[in-house]
Amino acid sequence: MADVIRVILSVIIPPVGVFFQVGLGLHFWLNILLTILGYIPGLIHAIWIIAKK
After folding, report:
1. Residue 43 CA to its chain's centroid (Å)
2. I need a labelling partner for 40 at 20 to 30 A (CA). Which of 2, 11, 27, 46 fits?
3. What is the pLDDT of residues 19-51, one digit of tens each?
């Protein structure tokens, strides 16, 4: 159930879902960069991080 909430948050703001999954690590900052460069790359990365763990 927690993963579903993270995915929903990731659809709204991708770095938030990544933050709740991994904290302030490398993946969080990478996701912020990808989201700034384009919403879709940030979203794909966030879903991948949540699904991987």
Report:
1. 6
2. 2
3. 999 999 999 999 999 999 999 999 999 999 999
